[in-house]
Design brief:
about 600 residues; mainly alpha
């Protein structure tokens, strides 16, 4: 996945092995009330999913490809916004973001808050074009702009990327969390979740997925809010948390902006390179853009993007902040020799590996009965929302961009739907194929697949943006940019995987990826421009300018309100990203050397 898509921290080898060893002890805290909550809430969601799927699939003759893959293009704004939000929230958020919060503090929140700006771009910059073109998939746009070869290449890379990274991400973090918290081995939990998700996705299509996402979003927001309030109440509120951080010289953890040379989250990478790479995830990736395609009108698409952007403000408070509180529990336990929070001395949450246990430990050690059940259900639903989105996306891209476009153009609508259902089942089978590798502690393989994904995104973003804003970009340049960028990114991934980077943050193999993304972007940019200019000479004519989007006719007052909400969203996320301050030297505490106001002014001016 793109680094801006989700948090970069994930469970790793030794932490996971120790998690398994202690899973039986930790799971002992699950009581009868928690089990009742889990059964009731999960049952409601599954029943709703199956019912929606049955309603959409009961009339075989009435299910068209547009109905199956795009929910008939009639989704209201609230379904679009909540589904965008739920599709992004995965179990790895609970593990990774809380772990990053415990280890390093608030900088990881920038990944979430910057998504609001990208959703603004999706809704108000790209949605008019997408809906005007009446696209079913984003590879279709690549064909209309660059030609069929680019469509096939983009679709093929996307399918491999989804199978190797997105499915693995959801399964890995979800299986580990369920095993640690409940004590259920992955061979018992994951197949049931995969099968349930595949059934309602295969028979209900995108409509069932999005309606299920709506319920999952509500459960997550309510559970996350209650969980955040409870852990803050345990430590004495925000004031008690700040006192604990100050007593342990950790106030720098509340800052979001870190120096250029920081080992993690340098501000240049987080505020310049990371948003570039994340354009792919939020604005081009079929998993997200498909929700916009399904909107009943442009105002509904834009309102949905704005709603999702505002919702993206919440995860750092629901997960990163509790992670910081868990670190305070650990530090206070050691500082007071076990007088405060005596249960928290054992797990070293200052270690990056152990920090990934922060949220599971909060569920087991801190949350009361009932709330534990709600949070466990939230993690299960987060896993399902990620999987159903990927399954439906794989089905749509394969059927539309490969099967119908290049294999069987005369396929009937009914056959297209059944091919989509078959591909959904195959995607679920790919998820099952991951289990032996995850069960064998092959965490290095998981990390490798995630890293490969992050090395591909800048190339796709470069070719996409040039196609939007440079009329002379053509198919020759797009192929040169994609092939050259993919080759360079793969080579750098192999070099960095084999390198020993202890203390080295400046070399080619060891520099922060968010910095490397700028080099990959620049190389792909140069290759696309050079290839396009050379292609003009070969073709003997300049490429045609890309089609310009014409906005739909709509109520002027409604459009003005939507634009105002978008501008407020943009201002809010900018203020959040920089408003927590800049820590020049973590060892010196909260030393703010550049004010949030100055950085905000510079960002708005840029």
């Amino acid at each position: 996945r793109a680094q801006g898509a989700r948090s970069p921290a994930v469970p790793r080898g030794r932490g996971r092995c120790r998690a398994r060893a202690g899973s039986r002890e930790m799971a002992a805290g699950i009581g009868a009330l928690d089990i009742c909550v889990i059964v009731v809430l999960s049952g409601i969601v599954v029943a709703k999913s199956v019912w929606v799927s049955w309603r959409m699939g009961r009339s075989e003759a009435g299910v068209s490809p547009e109905e199956f893959f795009l929910a008939g293009r009639r989704m209201p704004f609230w379904a679009v916004g909540l589904s965008l939000f739920a599709s992004n929230i995965g179990t790895e958020h609970f593990v990774g973001q809380a772990g990053s919060g415990a280890a390093t503090g608030m900088p990881v929140a920038v990944y979430e808050w910057s998504a609001g700006a990208l959703l603004f771009f999706l809704g108000f910059g790209l949605a008019p074009m997408y809906l005007r073109e009446r696209l079913t998939t984003t590879p279709q746009w690549f064909e209309r702009r660059y030609g069929p070869r680019c469509r096939l290449l983009f679709a093929s890379v996307s399918l491999v990327f989804y199978v190797l990274t997105k499915i693995a991400a959801s399964l890995f973090a979800g299986a580990v969390l369920l095993e640690v918290v409940i004590g259920i081995p992955m061979w018992a939990s994951v197949p049931v979740i995969l099968a349930t998700t595949a059934v309602y996705t295969a028979f209900g299509g995108l409509g069932a997925v999005m309606m299920t996402d709506v319920i999952q979003s509500i459960v997550f927001v309510l559970g996350g809010f209650v969980g955040m309030c409870y852990v803050l109440s345990v430590i004495g509120g925000v004031g008690g948390m700040m006192q604990a951080l100050e007593a342990n010289e950790l106030t720098y953890m509340m800052t979001t902006v870190r120096p250029i040379g920081a080992a993690e989250f340098p501000w240049t990478g987080m505020f310049i390179a990371m948003p570039v790479a994340s354009v792919w995830y939020w604005c081009v990736d079929q998993v997200m853009v498909q929700r916009v395609f399904s909107a009943k009108s442009l105002p509904h698409a834009q309102a949905g993007c704005a709603l999702a952007g505002y919702l993206k403000i919440l995860p750092p408070f629901f997960m990163v902040l509790p992670g910081i509180v868990a670190r305070c529990f650990f530090e206070e336990c050691h500082r007071t020799a076990g007088e405060r929070f005596p249960d928290w001395c054992e797990t070293n949450l200052s270690d990056a590996l152990e920090a990934n246990k922060a949220y599971p430990l909060l569920i087991i050690k801190t949350f009361p009965a009932g709330l534990r059940g709600i949070m466990i259900v939230s993690t299960i639903l987060a896993m399902m929302s990620s999987l159903d989105s990927v399954f439906n996306c794989i089905s749509t891209v394969f059927t539309t961009d490969i099967y119908v476009r290049f294999w069987n153009p005369d396929a009937s609508p009914q056959k297209q739907v059944w091919v989509g259902r078959l591909v959904t089942c195959i995607a679920a089978a790919c998820g099952m194929a991951w289990l032996p590798m995850l069960a064998s502690n092959s965490d290095g393989l998981y990390m490798a697949t995630q890293s490969v994904g992050t090395h591909l995104c800048p190339t796709l973003v470069t070719v996409f943006l040039l196609g939007l804003y440079w009329p002379r970009a053509n198919g020759y340049g797009a192929m040169a940019g994609m092939l050259g960028g993919f080759a360079f990114g793969t080579m750098r991934f192999l070099v960095s995987s084999a390198a020993d980077c202890a203390g080295d943050r400046a070399s080619f193999a060891c520099m922060d990826f968010n910095h490397m993304a700028l080099f990959i972007f620049a190389l792909s940019f140069a290759l696309t421009v050079a290839g396009s200019l050379a292609g003009e000479r070969l073709a003997g004519a300049k490429a045609a300018a890309p089609p310009r989007a014409q906005p739909e006719a709509a109520d002027p007052e409604l459009l003005q309100m939507l634009r105002l909400s978008g501008v407020l969203l943009l201002a809010s996320v900018l203020a959040l990203c920089v408003g927590f301050g800049y820590a020049a030297e973590p060892s010196r505490g909260h030393g703010v050397s550049v004010s949030g106001g100055v950085l905000a002014f510079a960002a708005v001016a840029a």
